[in-house]
Amino acid sequence: MVLPIVAYGDPVLRKIGEEIDKDYPNLSELIQNMKDTMKNARGVGLAAPQIGKAIRLFIVDTSPFSEDDELSIEEQNFLKNFKKVFINAKIISEEGNEWAFAEGCLSIPNINEDVFRNERLTIEYFDENFKKHTENLDGLAARVVQHEYDHIEGILFTDKLSSLKKRLLKKKLNNISKGNIDVDYRMRFPKK
């Protein structure tokens, strides 16, 4: 089922997510709904706070990036198959040079800005079957995971922008929080 995506300005996007266990109610249905919602909105990641749940759960599917001809065949193949569920994730380390990439967010539609992030990370998480993993990621896969991980920490990509850039975006962000925006997927706007 496609769920509405929570818009910028909703307090749930600022909450630090709570850990869940394998008995979380209707977890497999929730994960499937998140996958349907992400695909419907043509996203590459979706965190539970973006559908109104302040829990430590996010999903990624970097396959849309696999069509970038500037990437090596190896990178394209990796991104095509990088589809994962992250539960109770914890970033162990972030390393390497910071690099800029124009990020966007389903909760902050029609805004894309360069965000600097480290090129590599090590992350520990449980998958949808509560099997524990520790993984090293780099490049675009690391970036998508860092972006979604920020969501379960109550952080938005706009928080990483300069104060000047934030001032320039203030009107657009206010319009999003008021629902004055045109998007082709369902959204839930903050109550007035």
UniProtKB/TrEMBL annotation:
Active site location: E148
Record keyword Iron present: yes
Uppermost EC category: hydrolase
Cross-referenced CDD domains: Pep_deformylase
InterPro entries referenced in this protein's UniProt entry, alphabetically: Peptide_deformylase (IPR023635), Peptide_deformylase_sf (IPR036821)
Residue sites binding Fe cation per the record: C105, H147, H151
Protein's job: Removes the formyl group from the N-terminal Met of newly synthesized proteins. Requires at least a dipeptide for an efficient rate of reaction. N-terminal L-methionine is a prerequisite for activity but the enzyme has broad specificity at other positions.
PANTHER family listed in its UniProt record: PEPTIDE DEFORMYLASE
Matches recorded under HAMAP family: Pep_deformylase (MF_00163)
Protein name: Peptide deformylase
Species of the source: Aureibaculum marinum
